[in-house]
Design brief:
Distance between the termini: 27 Å
Order of helices and strands: EHEHEEHHHHHEHHHEHEHEHEEEEHHEHH
Oligomer: single chain
Strand content: 5-15%
Helix content: 40-55%
Largest sheet: 5 strands, parallel
Number of helices: 17
Strand order of the largest sheet: 7-6-5-13-12
Structural class: alpha/beta
Shape: elongated
């Protein structure tokens, strides 16, 4: 147990201290009712404030960014951003809050065709910036606390690998409208792709397995070697960006219902859903009915995220976790941390119960955006998981059903998954 006292009434300070001590260092935290209780306690103690430091107490001084609320803090956010990008020292707790508040996501003006903030806009993607700066600051605070209180039990923080799959299709050939299958067949004939034509109709007629259904087999195969597994299922098809198989198709429903209970089901809200609550409600209800599971976690399709609208919608709909926080065209840690953290609504100046789970690597980014082959991709996975392991954090990887199918151009990727899981084992 650690006793904490803050002479500040700032919600930013309390949020940051609570997350560092409890969320990142695994400490049981009790907040002192006042200075008298704090001073008389024999517990390990942390003081946030301007009081004269007392020997044997971890004293963290107040920092302006945590004390100035609302629009008045904009200048301080920009000053801290400049310090981080210039490599000059910055206040530690403010640095943590700077990244976790997603301030840059709210202020960025450059976005791509899908409305995603460009990675170049983010401080964590600038040269020389520690990609896991938040975790290292927290570990430094933890080391200071342990030095002051040698008898304090070791912090409960451990490395783990969370494997996630974006099920954008579910099935490749089955569960598709007949008109679409006929059009695709005509293209196969024009291209002289008789093998593809045979696969298409063999799968549709039930004469051979649908190749994309193999993602569920790949998940089962590696399930014993990961700490948590989540399948994020897209429910909408027929659009330019939304091309999932029909959830009403018997094979698809059977596939979802046959997944081991250890595989959690999350919603992949459609590109078309945007910020429309009614559409998200409908897609969630359809997925819950088709899978027979409750759906409490989400990852936005194409990683489309608008802060704070996306997070507020998820909260209003009762989602507990959002797994969108990552980079679509490279590897890395979007908020300079590999530790899940509760979202802080900066406009309303309040902590929320929505947990943000940052991911480190995605197969499509490795292959389609970074141009890496199988061996190069594995080397990058190894580099990233070693970074996370060094801070005893949570390594989250993202895979797609089409890659795990091993079908045609995706032939090497099931083996990439197997090897990556072995590299990243806890």
């Amino acid at each position: 147990m650690v006793l904490v006292h803050s002479t500040s009434a700032s919600p930013r300070a309390r949020y940051t201290l609570e997350h560092v001590l409890r969320g990142m260092l695994g400490r049981d935290v009790r907040w002192a009712a006042g200075m008298e209780e704090f001073r008389s306690s024999s517990l390990p103690r942390v003081l946030y404030g301007e009081e004269t430091p007392t020997n044997g107490i971890l004293h963290l001084r107040t920092e302006p960014l945590l004390e100035t609320l609302g629009p008045e803090a904009e200048e301080q956010f920009r000053a801290l951003q400049a310090s981080l990008r210039n490599g000059t020292p910055a206040a530690p707790l403010s640095t943590i809050f700077f990244f976790l508040s997603l301030w840059e996501e709210m202020r960025a003006t450059r976005t791509d065709a899908h409305g995603r903030v460009l990675a170049e806009e983010l401080t964590v993607c600038q040269p020389g910036v520690d990609p896991l700066l938040v975790d290292r600051i927290a570990l430094h605070i933890g080391a200071e606390l342990s030095s002051l209180y040698p008898g304090l039990p070791k912090a409960e923080r451990r490395y783990r690998h969370v494997l996630t799959v974006d099920v954008d299709n579910g099935l490749h050939f089955r569960g598709r409208p007949l008109a679409r299958a006929m059009g695709a067949s005509a293209r196969d004939v024009v291209r002289g792709d008789l093998r593809g034509l045979m696969h298409r109709w063999g799968a549709r007629l039930g004469l051979r397995p649908d190749p994309y259904a193999a993602w569920s087999d790949r998940v089962r195969e590696v399930l014993p070697d990961v700490d948590r597994t989540i399948a994020f299922v897209l429910t909408r098809g027929g659009g330019v960006h939304d091309h999932a198989a029909d959830l009403e198709h018997p094979q698809y429903r059977a596939l979802l219902r046959s997944l081991p209970s250890a595989v959690e089901i999350g919603l992949h809200p459609s590109h078309a859903s945007g910020m429309d609550a009614a559409t998200v409600q409908l897609e969630r209800a359809r997925l819950a009915e088709a899978s027979g599971r409750s759906v409490l976690i989400s990852r936005q399709h194409f990683l489309r995220m608008r802060v704070p609208a996306t997070q507020r919608l998820l909260l209003a709909e009762g989602f507990r976790e959002d797994h969108t926080l990552g980079i679509h065209d490279r590897t890395g840690f979007r908020a300079a941390t590999c530790t899940p953290f509760p979202w802080y609504d900066l406009e309303r100046e309040q902590a929320t119960e929505l947990m943000c789970w940052p991911f480190a690597v995605m197969d499509s980014a490795l292959h389609e955006r970074m141009g890496l082959g199988a061996e190069q991709a594995l080397a990058e996975v190894d580099r990233l998981h070693q970074l996370v392991r060094a801070v005893q954090g949570t390594f989250v990887s993202v895979w797609h059903d089409r890659y795990l199918s091993g079908y045609r151009n995706f032939g090497p990727w099931p083996d990439v998954l197997r090897k990556a899981v072995q590299l990243a084992r806890a």
